[in-house]
Amino acid sequence: MALPRASADRPFLSVSDLSVRFPTEDGLVYAVDGVTLSVDRGKTLAIVGESGSGKSVTAQAIMGLLDRRYAQVSGEVWLDDEELISQTEEQVRHLRGSRMGMIFQDPMSSLHPFYRVGDQLVEAINAHRSIGKTAARREVVEMLGRVGIQAPERRFDDYPHQLSGGMRQRVMIGMALINSPALLIADEPTTALDVTIQAQILDLISSLQAETGTTVILITHDLGIVADVADEVGVMYGGRLVEVAPTGRLYERPEMPYTLGLLSSVPRMDRERPDRLDPIPGNPPSPINLPAGCVFQPRCTYSQIVGGDTCATVRPELTETEPGHFVRCHLPVTERRRIAADIVRELAGSPR
Questions:
Q1: In sequence order, what DSSP letters do the residues of 131-195 get, joined into one string?
Q2: Longest CA span, the chain
Q3: Global pTM exceeds 0.85
Q4: 10 vs 195, more confident
């Protein structure tokens, strides 16, 4: 289930009405606007959307990485039996790295260039556990081997610039997992990597998850990479979740027009290459001036079907249209499904 249940039956990670705002000279930036979601233990939730949709800020709010002096954070984030938003910075810091780990999208800037790779992983261990120097080195070498680093004993003493982009990302995965966290957030872990290395990194995360039972949130802008790795997908736009569904159902029966637009813009290898991709018209909304109604309305080609100014003035709720499938849209369910069925048939095309 993608939305939080009652507290007596709370999923492992439960986010309720999470909002993040940043005061600026130009106005209040609504980076995350009322996000509600949940992930069961050992499952993977992918959060997808264009740049600026609020994906990474949502992840940072869950991890407690936002500076409360500049960010206004409200709502609830429950990690198992602990509520994180109400905790002090010191309390969340203790959980971060031990119960929660994060893989950042740029491993070169996340790893310190002046320290050896192995020493940085040892430091991650020492931040949460007191073990001897020899034991820490042995544990780091073992982890480097588990994440696919060849000759881990030798690579322990390398500096980040001596590793390829894919190897640096593997080091970051090892650092995130070195203390066996129960929750792993991977924020665009395949950015700037070639397609072959992308597949290797995603396979690595999936295999380590199967081995350890870690709960995973995968943040990405690319719907094309999540089909084989995620149990559920949440689509974000304008700081809001606009559709949440089990992965297979989202690909087979998407309903929100924005989700349809994302799927239409994914290149397909099993079809004749078109002259050009079919992009979503227009631009994402400014987080300082979000539309009063549906955030996607200015770019939606179907809002006229609703009639009147409902889409422009009334904010749609995230409602369950079938078990586990939630959609934020004013279009009647039957109309949404008719449109989606036509587009999915067109996307399916005829294999070569």
A1: --HHHHHHHHHHHHHHTT-SSHHHHTT--GGGS-HHHHHHHHHHHHHTT--SEEEEESTTTT--H
A2: 70
A3: yes
A4: 195
